[in-house]
Amino acid sequence: MLSVTPAGKVTLQDVAVRAGVSISTASRSLTGAVSISKDTQARVLSAAEELGYRHNPLLGEVMRSTRRGAANQCLGTLAYVTPYDDVQEWRETPTLCRHWSAAREQAALFGFGMTEFALTSHGMTARRLGDILRARGITGILLAAFPKDPFELVLPWEYFATVPVGHMVQNPQLDCVVSDHTQAVLLSGRTLAARGYRRIGLAIENYQNSITNHGWANGCAALALENPGLANIPCYLPDRMTKAGFLAWTREQRVDCVLTLSTFRNTANPMRDWLAGAGLVCPRDIGLVSLDITNATAGWAGIDQNSDEIGKAAVDLVMAKLRAGEHGIPKVRRSLLVHCHWREGATVRDTSPARQSDPE
Prior knowledge:
Layout: H1 12-19, H2 23-30, H3 38-51, H4 57-67, E1 76-82, H5 94-109, E2 112-118, H6 126-135, E3 140-143, E4 151-152, E5 161-164, E6 169-171, E7 176-179, H7 181-193, E8 200-202, H8 206-210, H9 215-226, H10 243-253, E9 257-260, E10 263-264, E11 267-268, H11 271-277, E12 287-290, E13 301-304, H12 307-324, E14 335-338, E15 341-343
Parallel strand pairs: 1-2, 1-3, 3-5, 4-6, 7-14, 8-9, 9-12, 12-13
Antiparallel strand pairs: 10-11, 13-15
Helix pairs in contact: 1-2, 1-3, 2-3, 5-12, 7-9
């Protein structure tokens, strides 16, 4: 006979009884443990669905920690999946470093550690990675922001609560945390327009626009609609940025301020030197704005994407999904946008009497 708690809440024991297994087997079946046969797992999952039971993996982590006598130690681990052969490669990208550091600190506030897994390391496949994570009892995944073209990723999603940072994973459609790239361009444009700039143009490599779901270019389109007083400068989006191509575009379009990014393929943005070599002094003759201020563009004016907050928000979303037992691919994708803020710098003129707060 089914036993239900007085409050009417179905327990793990109820599921175990219905499936004809022990409580420990029921628990391991619900977490997708590889040691449980597919038939047993299917029976337990069916029983849980029939009874309306919702498994809380965080409770399991706490119980395992308590049994180890480690109540004040790490309660569990989140996976931080990166797309690189060399685990050091992504650390050359300042924005990704900020994501990682902030995410790890935020996970620690929940009592969780974070371990990196390189998706393309030697011998690693998506299937093998899924097996490794399941064997280690890891059910929460952060997918690092991948500085490459959007792509498809195959993992046994039904076992994991997964949150990508950015739009790079186009299939499946997972809940994600991203910088609000359109807002970044609008904020830059409004700030520059208030200082007298009228021919503002975007110059980045094509893949850099693609990985933001075209957020940068969309921001430029919105800026032109919002402010008819600005010239509608076509974006310069070459496959590879070159000095000759960039300078030709600035001359042809008579650009008075360039919106760009701090790096190209992990190399510091050379545009300031290119312009100087062509006799254009920044900011006297032309302005430069970095849409992602990093050490590579120290001293530039531009946008701080609040990358620390992006890393924290990604962890918060993973933990919320774990608490709610939300594994797998959501029916409707949700994107959490993190706003940016303007940072003053020496690469644009300041025509206002005094520097003011960020325009809304």
